[in-house]
Every structure is written in structure tokens, then in C-alpha cells.
């Protein structure tokens, strides 16, 4: 069945008609992608070819892997490489068949919505994926991927992407970004500075990451002062390649301010391998405040993603590694935890701090009031488990009355799955237009106001929040 033109709109006739009108004004606007995890290597070479339908659609998508695993499908049967030497399916067609046999599991989910869009709008396939159609799907997708107009740079143009930001470790050499620039291609693929691997002292690879940071900067990092110097130098390097933002992942939004001697004491203990969990937490909280300080000086927008308990399943982590669908949301508290950072920089308009959360219960109680007050704070889009039709509807209902749309950062797709980017933006635009249409038919907004707000939610807010 083809995608319905009124999908995601209200069944109420007046609201549906207004949503159609608003959507028509934003449907063809360019895509602004200020945060995501698409690999820059896709764009570094002009003739890059995707490996296979499996490698493109299934293997990088933790949403798909987690659902299939929950229903007893072994990840090795899907072609996910093992770390322990155990055999796994190396034939991508056979693994694809296993995926197709279970595609019904995604009915009514965001993954099902996105993939239906990808199959129909990008590959031109309107039938349903199942065991009987699996080989036909595979052959059609594989044939299209072999065509020159299905190379990533061509798809970037076809999708009307205005800018796409990747997420890169502070220690990354950014070779792919350099290659993109040197190629002369006009697409805007911009790095984002992610310092978690060197800032979080309890990271298992922290010492190796620190040594690599020292190598990248040429700074002998032996204390807190030289550590900060190295971070500032790397941020400057990222900015020279077009970076507009940093990104910080934390299980909690805890922040604190340490004196330099206190920070150095903890850093020295980490160098000796004697760090405690409490010391690591305090140092991470301090470094969030310090990162805000540096952002005020160098202009990078600061993103904070909070609330994921990573790799909840240790068996899966041992066998397959990270990012295989075992991350679980957890509760977060922002009002007190963010206060040290906001006391220091919340009133400084030079800082833009964009906060994302997996704890929806904080939207109306904490985050919307905070973003509705502090000039430096913006609220990020519904994220991860909540970038869904219902998650977006809850976001609009819980956030907008308190902080308004202009204290939010618009939409970002936050995906590794490159082909799903247009589908995710389409869902957001339709959900936003349906919400605005409800306000029009209830005479809260007039049509002109709603039309302006639809454009802002589609592109304007993200452009301004990230200074793109």
C-alpha cells in the first residue's frame, strides 16, 4: 500500500484540512541536520558505494536490532559481527531474509514508519516487506545502490540537505572531513566535538584516549591545566573545519564547580588509576561547567544529552560491542543538577546550551520552565525513544505552553541511518503542522501565525540555535 498523503494528520476534518495547508508550505523546505551520527566517510570519496541493503538499512540501526533481539532473533543471524569469535551470518542476503521474516514486528512503530518511507519514496517499492518479498526487495535495493545517483553525495543533493553535522570524538583526526573539504564538493558536512572519552574519567579506555589527545595536540598532558589546553586546541581545530557545536553525553545532568586545585587533585588520581566513582562524577560535572565556559569564549553551541543507561545487557556488550539496542532510559533531575552551570552562565547570551532528555516527565515540570527563563538555555527536540509521532505530540503538549517554540532548537534527526533522514524530518513536519492546525481550529492562532511557526519548526529554529 502506498503512503497516504494525510498520514499523521487528525481525522477531524477541519484540523486535517488546515494541517494539509500548513504542511504544503514546509514539505519542500531544505533539511537542516545539526546533530546526528552519519559517518563522514560516506561523503569523503565522490564515488562511495553502499555495501549491501543489509549493511545500509539493518546493521547500523539499533532500533531494528533491539526489537528483533527482543523477539528472540539472534543478532548473529542478522549478520552482526561477534567479538568472541563465534560464527555469524556472513551472507547478507540470508541475513536480510531473517530481517524480512520479522518485519511485521515494526508495525505502528517509528522504525516501521521510517522504513516504509525509505522503501517507497527513495527506492520506489510500494509492496510490503515479508518472507515472500524478501529477495525481490533485496534485488531492487541492491540494484539501485549500484547506480551513480545513489551515491551519498547525490542523495545528499536529492534530499535537499542544507547542512549535516556528524559526531566525532575529541581525539578524531577528522581525516574524512579534511578530504571532503579538499575535494571541492559543496556539501556542508560539519564535525561536532564530542569530548566524553577524555572528560569522563571512568571511561574504560580513558588513559588510551588521553594519550591520543596528547599525540593529536602535541601537548604533554600531565595535569589539569595541560588537559584544558589540549581540549581548547582541539576545539579550535574542529572549528577550523566548520564545527558549530560540541556534544556531551551524560547519564545525569549533574554539574558542579571545582577549584582548579581540586580538579587537578582528581585528575592526578585518575592518572594513577586510583579514581573513585564519586570523584569521576564530580569531575564530569565540573567539566560540563568548564565546557560552558569555553563555549562562551569560542562560540561552539553546547549540546547535552541526558538519561541513557548505556549497554544495559552485559552479555550483548561482551558478544557484540556497544550500540546494539541495549540502552535504556532512566530518570533525571535538572532543576538542582543544572543550577551550578546556570548560575555561572545561564544569563550569558553568548552561550547556547541545548538540552535533550530521555525522561519525558521533566518536560513540563523542569525543562520547559528552565528554557522559558534562562537566555542561554534551549530545549532540544524529542530524542531517541521519543522521536515518534506520539512522542512529538507529547512534547508539543507539555513544552510549548510554558517556553514557546522560540525557546526550543527545532528538529534534528540524530540518526546513523542516512536514508532515514528525510523520513524523520517528514514525520516532524507533519506532527508539527497537525499540532499547529489544532491551535488554528480552536482559534488560539490565526492561519498566518501558524504558517510562520511551521517554517520556524521546520528549519528556522535549528538554523538559529546552531548558528548555521
Q: How would you summarize this macromolecular structure in one to three sentences?
A:
By secondary structure, the chain is of the alpha/beta class. It has helices at residues 13-26, 41-44, 53-58, 62-70, 92-101, 110-122, 134-145, 152-158, 175-183, 196-199, 206-217, 224-240, 260-271, 277-298, 314-320, 339-345, 362-371, 389-403, 421-441, 447-465; strands spanning 31-33, 161-165, 168-169, 189-190, 193-194, 245-250, 301-306, 308-309, 328-329, 353-357, 377-379. It contains 20 helices and eleven strands.
Set down the secondary structure blueprint:
Layout: H1 13-26, E1 31-33, H2 41-44, H3 53-58, H4 62-70, H5 92-101, H6 110-122, H7 134-145, H8 152-158, E2 161-165, E3 168-169, H9 175-183, E4 189-190, E5 193-194, H10 196-199, H11 206-217, H12 224-240, E6 245-250, H13 260-271, H14 277-298, E7 301-306, E8 308-309, H15 314-320, E9 328-329, H16 339-345, E10 353-357, H17 362-371, E11 377-379, H18 389-403, H19 421-441, H20 447-465
Helix pairs in contact: 1-19, 1-20, 6-19, 11-12, 13-14, 14-16, 17-18, 18-19, 19-20
Amino acid at each position: 500500500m502506498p503512503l497516504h498523503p494525510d498520514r499523521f494528520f487528525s481525522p477531524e476534518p477541519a484540523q486535517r484540512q488546515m494541517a494539509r495547508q500548513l504542511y504544503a508550505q514546509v514539505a519542500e523546505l531544505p533539511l537542516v541536520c545539526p546533530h546526528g551520527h552519519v559517518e563522514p566517510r560516506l561523503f569523503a570519496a565522490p564515488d562511495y558505494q553502499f555495501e549491501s541493503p543489509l549493511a545500509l538499512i539493518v546493521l547500523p540501526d539499533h532500533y531494528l536490532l533491539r526489537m528483533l533481539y527482543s523477539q528472540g532473533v539472534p543478532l548473529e543471524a542478522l549478520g552482526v559481527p561477534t567479538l568472541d569469535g563465534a560464527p555469524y551470518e556472513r551472507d547478507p542476503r540470508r541475513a536480510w531474509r531473517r530481517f524480512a521474516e520479522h518485519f511485521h514486528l515494526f508495525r505502528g512503530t517509528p522504525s516501521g514508519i521510517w522504513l516504509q518511507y525509505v522503501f517507497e519514496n527513495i527506492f520506489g517499492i510500494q509492496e510490503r516487506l515479508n518472507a515472500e518479498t524478501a529477495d525481490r526487495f533485496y534485488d531492487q535495493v541492491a540494484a539501485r545502490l549500484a547506480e551513480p545517483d545513489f551515491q551519498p553525495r547525490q542523495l545528499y543533493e536529492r534530499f535537499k540537505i542544507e547542512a549535516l553535522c556528524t559526531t566525532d570524538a575529541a581525539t578524531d583526526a577528522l581525516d574524512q572531513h579534511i578530504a571532503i573539504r579538499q575535494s571541492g564538493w559543496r556539501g556542508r558536512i560539519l564535525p561536532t566535538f564530542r569530548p566524553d572519552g577524555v572528560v569522563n574519567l571512568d571511561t574504560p579506555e580513558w588513559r588510551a584516549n588521553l594519550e591520543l589527545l596528547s599525540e593529536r595536540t602535541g601537548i604533554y598532558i600531565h595535569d589539569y591545566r595541560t588537559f584544558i589546553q589540549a581540549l581548547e586546541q582541539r576545539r579550535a581545530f574542529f572549528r577550523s573545519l566548520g564545527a558549530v557545536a560540541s556534544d556531551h553525553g551524560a547519564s545525569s545532568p549533574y554539574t558542579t564547580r571545582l577549584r582548579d586545585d581540586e580538579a587537578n587533585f582528581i585528575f592526578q588520581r585518575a592518572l594513577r588509576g586510583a579514581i573513585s566513582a564519586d570523584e569521576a562524577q564530580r569531575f564530569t560535572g565540573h567539566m560540563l561547567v568548564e565546557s560552558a565556559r569555553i563555549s562562551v569564549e569560542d562560540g561552539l553551541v553546547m549540546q547535552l544529552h541526558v538519561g541513557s543507561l548505556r549497554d544495559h545487557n552485559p552479555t550483548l556488550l561482551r558478544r557484540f560491542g556497544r550500540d546494539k539496542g541495549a540502552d535504556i532510559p532512566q530518570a533525571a533531575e535538572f532543576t538542582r543538577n543544572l543550577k551550578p552551570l546556570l548560575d555561572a552562565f545561564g544569563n550569558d547570551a553568548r552561550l547556547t546550551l541545548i538540552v535533550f532528555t530521555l525522561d519525558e516527565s521533566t518536560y513540563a515540570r523542569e525543562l520547559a520552565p528552565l528554557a522559558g527563563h534562562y537566555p542561554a538555555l534551549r530545549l532540544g527536540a524529542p530524542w531517541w525513544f521519543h522521536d515518534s509521532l506520539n512522542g512529538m505530540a507529547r512534547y508539543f503538549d507539555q513544552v510549548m505552553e510554558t517556553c514557546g517554540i522560540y525557546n526550543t532548537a527545532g528538529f534534528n534527526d540524530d540518526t546513523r541511518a542516512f536514508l532515514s533522514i528525510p523520513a524523520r524530518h517528514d514525520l516532524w513536519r507533519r506532527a508539527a503542522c497537525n499540532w499547529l492546525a489544532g491551535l488554528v481550529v480552536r482559534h488560539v492562532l490565526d492561519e498566518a501565525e501558524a504558517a510562520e511557526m511551521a517554517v520556524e519548526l521546520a528549519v528556522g529554529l535549528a538554523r538559529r540555535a546552531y548558528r548555521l
